[in-house]
Structure formats: C-alpha cells, structure tokens
Amino acid sequence: MDFELSEEQVLLKDSVDRFVQNNYGPEDRLKLSQTELGFSREHWKQMAELGWLGMAFSEEVGGFGGGAVEVMIMMESMGRGLVLEPFVSTVLLGGTLVAEAGNNEQIESVIPSVIEGETMLAFAYAEQQARFNLNDIETTATKSGDNYILNGTKIVVYHGATADKIVVSARTSGNSRDADGISLFLVDKDAAGLDIRGYATVDGQRAADIRFDNVSVPSSALLGEEGKAAPFIERVVDRAIGALCAEAVGAMSAANEITNEYLKTRSQFGVPIGKFQVLQHRMVDMYMEAEQSKSMSDMVAMKLDLGHDDDTRKAVSAAKAQIGKSAKFVGQQSVQLHGGMGMTDEYSIGHYFKRLTTIEMLFGNTDFHLDRFSSLS
Questions:
Q1: Burial of 233: CB neighbours in 10 Å, binned 0-12, 13-18, 19+
Q2: What is the tens place of the pLDDT at every residue in 213-251?
Q3: In the chain, ranges of CATH 1.10.540.10 domains
Q4: C-alpha triplet 127, 133, 136: angle, nearest 5°
Q5: Are the CB atoms for 92 and 101 separated by under 8 Å?
C-alpha cells in the first residue's frame, strides 16, 4: 500500500492544520466547550466555505468526491485540536445515511444544505439495552395510513439537541435483535411528540436523549426500503469508526507531544523529570502505541475506499480494537506523568484523556471489536 499523500491531500491536511492552529488553542477550546451550544457556528460556516462539509459526499449528490482517506486526513488533524463541531454527526453519520439510503428527492432536499452548512443532522441509533449491537432496536415505527408512528427512546445522540433533522433507526417488523425489519426515518426537530433532552458529555461534546412519543411522520420520511436499513447502518458506522480511529491518532500524537514537553520542563531533585530513565521508557511505549495506531488507521481508511465486505469489516474491528487499547494507554499515561494537575480543566492533557477514553467506547469498545473480529474470521 502507498501511504504517501497526493499533492491535493497535502493541501487538505495543511488547511485543516491551519484551522486547528488558529481556532483551537487549549483556552479557546475550553471556552467554546462551556458555551450553551458547545461549538461555534462561525467555525461551522468556515468549514462549509472551505468545502470540508462536502468532502465525504460523492460528486453525484453534489459533494467533492473524497473518500475515507480524505476523511482520515481531516479527522487526524481535528483530533490534534479536539475539534468540537459536529462533523461526524452531521456529515459522516446523518448526511451519509441520507445520501446512501435516501431517494433523489430526499437527497436533493437535504444534502446541498448540509454541504453549505445550513442544516445539521444527528443519528439516533443507540438504546439503553443495546450494548453496541446496532441491530438491537426496540423503538418502533408502525404504519398508519400514509404515516408512520414512532415510539421509543434513543440515548447519547451526539449533537441531537442542535440538529435540524434527526435520522432515527426504528423497527418496522421482526424481533428486537433481528437485522431484518430495521428502517430509517428522517424526523424534523420540531415534530410533535419529540422530547429532546440535551447535555454535555464528559469529553466536552454535546449529546441528547430523545424520546419519541407517538411521533407521526409521513411515508416520505422513510429512507430507503422499509425493513432493509441494517446494511446501510453497518456500512456508514464502519466508516465513522474509521474516522474516529483517525481522530484518536491525532489526539494521541498531540497528547504525546504535550507530555514530552512537560517532562522536559518539570523539575524534581534539581533536574527535569524527563532525565529519569523509567519515564523515558514510558514515553517510548506511548510513542510506539501511537505509531501502531497510525498504521492501523491508514490501513483501514484504504480498505474502506475499496468496498465493504467481510475483510473490510475485520479491518475496521482490528483497527478499533488496537486504537482503542492504545488510546486508553496513551491517555492514562499522559495524565499519570502530569500528576494531579493532569485532570484539571485548566490544563489541556486531561481533555485529551477524556476524549480518547470516549473514543474507545464509541460504536463498540475494544472487547466488542475483538469479538467481532473473531466472529468474522
């Protein structure tokens, strides 16, 4: 595999790096995370103007035709700054589901406004009992004349409170863990019977629990064929996992640099603590974990651009398991090497630790993906 970036990819990386450098200093990020919105609409507008919100969409639906590799490049740079804007929620999850499962009318009514930064989306999939199983869905959608009636509760819907439209998975037939019988619906945020309760997450992001109480949506809100959404969901989530792996690589790289610099400046017994061999060995282990993760992230991005078969699924789970383990290790060691100050809000390393810990859990933790890898072998 060729891991060298093309000239266009280098330019993309440089533009995201500049955005992070200009807008995501530690104090800037902390202040932004403490606002009611939790991110900046001005930043979102800038992302749209730079073409980033259209990068992951094909040219057929009005995007710029970037693939998983381009998304990886962007997410790795965003991970270095712990960017808060809802790129994964709106573009990689909600937007991609509409683009791949929706009909022409749905695509034309949603995707251009997403690319222009005017519409934000969220994907409501997780439920209390599911434990990472994307097919474990008890939220129901019952046909009633020309409408569907949605009932159920979705939890930890990232950026669900700020989304203009919510893509929700619901069961139209079958038992609670069947792959068949799952459908996708596009629901407006102001639909009657929709109860959205937003909150801040431990990693500085925003999420919401959403209850559907006899929410009536027209048949035109159905994305794709009724009961056949599971393959779309799995494919889109696997791509999102690849993006999160890249984000973790960027966050690990930044955490290692911050920690290494701290070891050079923090003195004890009259010398910088970085002179102590045991701490040097610890830093070597942290850099090795980050480098292994970088290789896995690059590999899975290339696999995702080739298609979505069992080999790709195995690669996704292998990468998520390795990077989840590495993220936890680098985050924990970074905090430990900083001592108690590492967990203060005023110091950046604690925020990297929290985000890396969260990424390890999103869309399945290390143990879940080890089991998934084994089942596909």
A1: buried
A2: 999 999 999 999 999 999 999 999 999 999 999 999 999
A3: 7-115
A4: 55
A5: no
- Evaluate whether the domain defined by 7-115 bears CATH number 1.10.540.10: yes
Q: From CA 126, how far away is CA 123, in angstroms rounded?
A: 9
pLDDT in tens, 235-245: 999 999 999 99
Tokens of 72: 């990886």
d(CA 135, CA 232): 12
Q: Please determine, looking at this structure, whether the domain spanning 121-227 carries the CATH number 2.40.110.10.
A: yes
**pTM of the full structure:** 0.95
Instruction: Give the torsion through C-alpha atoms of 224, 230, 235, 239, to 10 deg.
Output: 100
User: Is the distance from CB of 365 to CB of 132 less than 8 angstroms?
Assistant: yes
Q: Is 145 left (phi over 0), alpha (psi -120 to 50) or beta?
A: left
What would be the CATH architecture of the domain defined by 231-376?
Answer: Up-down Bundle (1.20)
Longest CA span, the chain: 79
Question: Which part of the chain has CATH 2.40.110.10?
Answer: 121-227
328-376 confidence digits (pLDDT tens): 999 999 999 888 777 777 789 999 999 999 999 999 999 999 999 999 9
Question: What pLDDT digit, counting tens, does each position of 138-189 carry?
Answer: 999 999 999 999 999 999 999 999 999 999 999 999 998 999 999 999 999 9
List, by residue range, all CATH 1.20.140.10 domains of the chain: 231-376
Query: DSSP state, 228?
Result: B
Long-range contacts of 52-59 (CB under 8 A, 24+ apart): 52/16, 52/87, 53/87, 53/90, 53/91, 53/114, 53/115, 53/116, 53/117, 54/115, 55/12, 55/91, 56/91, 56/92, 56/95, 56/96, 57/91, 57/95, 57/96, 57/99, 57/111, 57/115, 58/99
